[in-house]
Write a structure and sequence with these properties.
Structural class: mainly beta
Strand order of the largest sheet: 1-7-6-3-4
Helix content: under 10%
Strand content: over 45%
CATH superfamily of the largest domain: Immunoglobulins
Distance between the termini: 158 Å
CATH topology of the largest domain: Immunoglobulin-like
Number of strands: 65
CATH class of the largest domain: Mainly Beta
Number of domains: 8
Length: 698
């Protein structure tokens, strides 16, 4: 079927496809009899307007759907549209009013009128327009004169741009005499929109790109054209407001007079046609060259490349200079004529202006050097005063040398030859002295600090004492040592002793470490203290363990010894209080009389040396046995085969000891047993005489 449309554009609409995979629609159109080469994507909308169709042609339209992956359906059924052609100069008649279709952008239109029947023959007639819609403008006035019976005439008008729709024209014919002879007729004009969408073109012919000129006044020229009609050309210089150019030949050539600024200038232009279409913006950059002299200063030691000092440079042009510091100097910044910092980068990018002054600033960054010539390191000196000497230098100039003795406040040294040599008088302290010195140059750079240590020797004797048993190494007792110098001694304890501490002459402990580090001073006395740590030894001679006695009074005896000296021996009987024993030979032997009780008695004893060390406690037992009522007897004596045998009798259950002697003075114990028992002396035959006795043995 055919679609109704105004010439030049058509709007197509359709129902949405409910399939959830469908993401959009494509519209294909082509001139009937041709191929489907034109395509418009509508996205997911359900209508689309297609413009710029050719008047008088019949078009075919079809649609497709597509999914997210771009897969497209076949073409739908076709619909057709015939675009109306422009109709001008169609002659309506007053007797048969008709419709006239005109193009709003086609310029003046001519309406031919015919069929005028009123009026007498050869009578002058006038055609008056009594009503015109706002869509049309008459040219030049609404009156047309004609002579009857000539029944033709014409009416000229211009459609108002962009005012589309239906215009009703009402015309009245009168004969100029009788009002009754008026004839009124109407006809319709359809004003359709055929919009001009073609952008005009614009070209700058002068200046050409990168042109260099030497005058401030310049005439810009160019060409402009359009498919319908040019409206104007506008220009802007260096971003200024847009200004209309001028023309004498309908913009086929246009021009504009501008005033340039020194340096680069940028011209921009665009054209506007009578339909309001705007061309692309055109631009051209060119240079107005004005030269001025540049002044370049260098502060400090360095170079500039290229050095534009005194050179004629173009105003508003961009240039570059790079500063390079000499050895021992560092680049700091570029400054302008007012001393303001332009940049602290070595490479300066600047735009040339009148009276331009630039300064590259370099500073001295090299430290000075300083050395101490006298004293030499570890030098020994015997006088209290000393003159320190040294040397100093710098790549520019040394400003001062400062020195300090033993960490004192810094003091300025003196010089007589610009610090090539310098001196300082100091008063030394006994012992090691430290001299430090550094130099400062005129830029404030400071040298490393130089340090030399040397010795002012003042000798004094040292007293070293030893308390206890031990040795000292190195033993400086009586030695002459240098005041304020540092020394070391190590104490070593003898066997049985331990080192405790070092003390000074006032009895104050200095350290409990064996190695003493000390600084020599006048009248110094040091004592190494060793303590006795060996415990004394003690033994019980009587009683032997489990001794049996029959007397209540018993003499406990023993021995005691120590690496130094035993101070005392203490004993206790059966857990009683500790009591001091007695000695007659410094505790080599000691004794203690105790009163035993019947049965088992326990004796304990320990020794204490003069250092307070205590021996382990020694303990033995003694049994006090009550003697029996019956004495021992020897019965049934017999001798045979060199052996002598007899029966020992006494109180039953008591022990008796058999002893023998050859002189009745010295007795030897032979056997102890419980009575009664038989004793046999197997050695009796070896003696010329042999005496026997039996005694109670508790």
């Amino acid at each position: 079927m055919e679609l109704p449309a105004f010439a030049g554009n058509v709007t197509l609409a359709w129902y949405a496809n409910t399939n959830p995979v469908i993401t959009g629609y494509n519209i294909y159109f082509w001139i009937k009899g041709g191929a489907s080469t034109n395509k418009v994507s509508a996205g997911n909308a359900t209508s689309v307007t297609i413009s710029n169709l050719v008047a008088g042609c019949t078009y075919l339209f079809a649609a497709t759907t597509y999914d997210a992956s771009g897969l497209e359906s076949p073409l739908s059924a076709e619909v057709s549209l015939t675009v109306p052609a422009n109709v001008v100069n169609q002659p309506p008649t007053l007797n048969a009013p008709g419709n006239l279709t005109v193009n709003e952008n086609a310029g003046p239109q001519i309406v031919n009128l015919s069929g005028i029947t009123s009026g007498a023959a050869n009578e002058n007639q006038m055609l008056h327009v009594t009503a015109v819609s706002s869509n049309l403008t008459l040219i030049p006035n609404p009156t047309v004169n004609y002579t009857s019976p000539n029944t033709t005439g014409s009416l000229a008008f211009t459609p108002v741009p962009y005012a589309t729709g239906t215009a009703i024209i009402t015309v009245t014919v009168d004969d100029g005499a009788a009002i009754s002879n008026l004839v009124t007729r109407t006809f319709t004009v359809n004003v359709l929109s055929f919009n001009d969408t073609t952008r005009p073109s614009d070209q700058i012919t002068a200046p050409t790109a990168n042109l260099r000129v030497s005058n401030a006044a310049f005439t810009v020229t160019g060409n402009a054209s359009d498919n319908v009609g040019m409206g104007a050309v506008y220009y802007s210089l260096n971003g200024s407001g847009w200004t209309m150019a001028t023309t004498t030949n309908y913009w086929a050539k246009w021009m504009a007079d501008v005033m340039l600024t020194p340096g680069p200038n940028t011209l921009r232009t665009y054209a506007v046609d009578t339909s309001g279409n705007i061309s692309a913006t055109n631009s051209a950059s060119f240079v107005y060259v004005v030269n001025a002299m540049t002044t370049v200063h260098i502060s400090g030691n360095g170079t500039v490349n290229p050095n534009y000092n005194g050179a004629l440079l173009a105003i508003n042009e961009n240039y570059t200079m790079t500063a390079s510091a000499s050895s021992g100097f560092g680049f700091t910044n570029w400054t302008d004529s007012s001393g303001n910092v332009v940049t602290n980068r070595a490479t300066l990018q600047f735009t040339m202006v009148t009276n331009l002054t630039l300064t590259a600033n370099f500073v001295d960054v090299q430290k000075p050097t300083v050395s101490i010539v006298n004293p030499a390191s570890n030098q020994q000196w015997t006088n209290g005063t000393f003159t320190v000497t040294g040397k100093a230098s710098d790549n520019v100039a040394v400003g001062a040398v400062y020195y300090s003795l033993n960490g004192s406040d810094l003091t300025a040294a003196t010089t007589g030859n610009g610090w090539t040599n310098w001196t300082a008088n100091v008063t030394l302290t006994p012992g090691t002295n430290s001299v430090q010195a550094y130099a400062v140059d005129n830029s404030g750079n400071i040298s490393p600090t130089n340090t030399v240590k040397f010795e002012y020797v003042v000798l004094k004797p040292l007293a070293v004492r030893i308390n206890g048993k031990g040795t000292v190494n190195q033993n400086y007792n009586g030695a002459l040592l240098a005041i304020n110098e540092n020394y070391t001694m190590t104490a070593s304890a003898a066997s049985g002793f331990a080192f405790t501490n070092w003390m000074n002459g006032s009895g104050n402990a200095m350290t409990n470490r064996a190695t003493l580090q000390f600084t020599m001073v006048t009248n110094l006395t040091l004592t190494a203290n060793f303590a006795d740590v060996t415990r004394p030894a003690l033994s019980l001679v009587t009683p032997a363990s489990n001794t049996r006695v029959s007397n209540t009074v018993f003499a406990v005896t023993g021995k005691a010894g120590d690496n130094v000296a035993v101070g005392a021996v203490y004993y206790s009987l059966n857990g009683s209080s500790w009591t001091a024993a007695t000695t007659g030979n410094n505790w080599t032997n000691w004794t203690a009389l105790v009163i035993l009780k019947s049965g088992t008695n326990t004796v304990q004893a320990y020794a204490v040396d003069t250092s307070g060390n205590t021996s382990p406690t020694n303990s033995n037992t003694v049994n006090l046995v009550v003697p029996p009522g019956a004495p021992a007897t020897l019965d049934s004596a017999a001798y045979a085969n060199g052996q002598y045998a007899f029966v020992v009798s006494g109180a039953s259950g008591y022990k008796y000891m058999v002893q023998s002697s050859t002189d009745l003075v010295n007795w030897v114990s032979l056997q102890t047993n419980t009575a009664p028992f038989t004793f046999t002396d197997t050695n009796a035959g070896q003696f010329s005489q042999r005496f026997y006795r039996s005694i109670f043995n508790p």
